[in-house]
Amino acid sequence: MIGLTGLGRGLADLVLPPMAHDSREATQAAGLTADAWNRVAFLEDPVCDGCGAAFEYDGGDFASERCAACLASPYRFTRCRAACVYDDASRGLILKYKHGDQQQFAGLFARWLGRAAAPLIEQADAVVPVPLHPARLLARRFNQAAEIARPLARSARLDYLPDALQRTTRTASQGGRSARGRRLNVKSAFDLTETGARRVRGRRILLVDDVLTTGATAEACATALLDGGARAVDLAVIARVRTAREVPR
Question: Where would you find the membrane-spanning parts of this chain (predicted)?
Answer without folding.
Answer: none
